Amino acid sequence: MNPRVKSVQASDDYSLMLEFTDGSRGVYDCKPLLDFGVFKELSDRQYFKRAEVIDGTVVWPHEQDICPDTLYLDSVKLVNAS
Asked: How many Å apart are CA 65 and CA 53, to the nearest integer?
């Protein structure tokens, strides 16, 4: 099982800054989703920024969510600068 989402910060450019339960961090680009079905509502920047973590994944108030495995596998991982 892949790590789950621990924290999220939604950015103005429709990306999610994610921290996972294994301590890794990544950026997930949501722009490709904005033209599809239930995700169209996310194109409202204020609504997009209401993202939160529930049960290890990212969700929005009207029940849109993204699979935590997708978020982990498809995010661009960030490397800590020492």
From this structure: 10
